């Protein structure tokens, strides 16, 4: 897959010939996105054309709503990796600037879609490309003026509800990791490196790898989780706490830390990834380290049992 960063207006000749173009922001590359991309892939095969996906370098609401605290399911790197796995040939990452945010629907069609040489555009039923009253899927044929075909992908649902990035962000921040899994079609993952803590973990007999994560990623709600942690390319079962470490700490800072089962290595500053399976309990302020340690022993038994019974999910 070729990853191409562009700014508006798009220059011609990005690709040698025509493409099938899938449009969306695709945060999470969830089940709905995967379906849309498979529809686009089929069309590309049928037409013997490459499959191009276009997304933006940041979520439009960061610019429209001046929302600098926008929370993402995926970093750009995670999205790119998922797109490559889905068999996308070209991933266009268009810079979403203030001036770009003001263009009309017709400009978007003439100076983005047509310049990218789309033979067919594939987008979801609710895709917008400017002011939503006009720049929507209903009006796309008027702007297209017959220059490309349009495939509108209907709403995808799970148990009667829309599969959407907003719903998935909510599931993650509510600790509903199994729902997030059902909507994403894969487990939620957070990556980063291992930072230093206060060395209390070793004192407790439960050393924890403290995750330094990308601050724009969705953080599961405070509590304890059955997780898997990837170290040196290998996934280990683990238990992870998202919390303020209230028994030990005074500060109001969230820590994400994993005690990795059957593992004993120094991994400070190394990359790790955490795959989130299930919320098991909330954070408790214990009266001392002994009570915390007893609870950690119970957590370990409970979470080991969980993995023994749920090998794949
Ligand atoms: C599975 C798990 C559950 C935890 N639960 C709690 C808790 O309920 N209350 C709490 O104050 N700290 C909890 N902790 C955090 C510990 O306080 C923390 O791991 C310990 O202080 C080590 O910190 P350090 O990394 O700074 O050495 C938990 C940690 C883990 C790994
Ligand atoms: N089973 C394990 N799970 C997590 N970290 C481990 C494990 N075994 C050894 N370690 C190492 O120990 C460190 C954590 O020890 P801990 O006493 O909790 O220190 P800190 O307070 O610096 O996090 C980890 O960063 C890692 O390098």
Automatic annotation (TrEMBL):
Catalyzed reactions: riboflavin + ATP = FMN + ADP + H(+); FMN + ATP + H(+) = FAD + diphosphate
Catalytic activity, EC: 2.7.1.26, 2.7.7.2
GO molecular function: ATP binding; FMN adenylyltransferase activity; riboflavin kinase activity
InterPro entries in the record: FAD_synthase, Riboflavin_kinase, Riboflavin_kinase_bac, Riboflavin_kinase_bac/euk, Riboflavin_kinase_dom_sf, Rossmann-like_a/b/a_fold
SMART domains: Flavokinase
Functional pathway: Cofactor biosynthesis; FMN biosynthesis; FMN from riboflavin (ATP route): step 1/1; Cofactor biosynthesis; FAD biosynthesis; FAD from FMN: step 1/1
Gene Ontology BP terms: FAD biosynthetic process; FMN biosynthetic process; riboflavin biosynthetic process
SUPFAM superfamilies registered for this protein in UniProt: Nucleotidylyl transferase (SSF52374), Riboflavin kinase-like (SSF82114)
Keywords: ATP-binding, FAD, Flavoprotein, FMN, Kinase, Multifunctional enzyme, Nucleotide-binding, Nucleotidyltransferase, Transferase
Domain Riboflavin kinase, chain residue ranges per copy: 183-308
Name of the protein this chain belongs to: Riboflavin biosynthesis protein
Enzyme category, top tier: transferase
Family statement drawn from the similarity comment of this UniProt entry: Belongs to the ribF family.
Pfam families: FAD_syn, Flavokinase
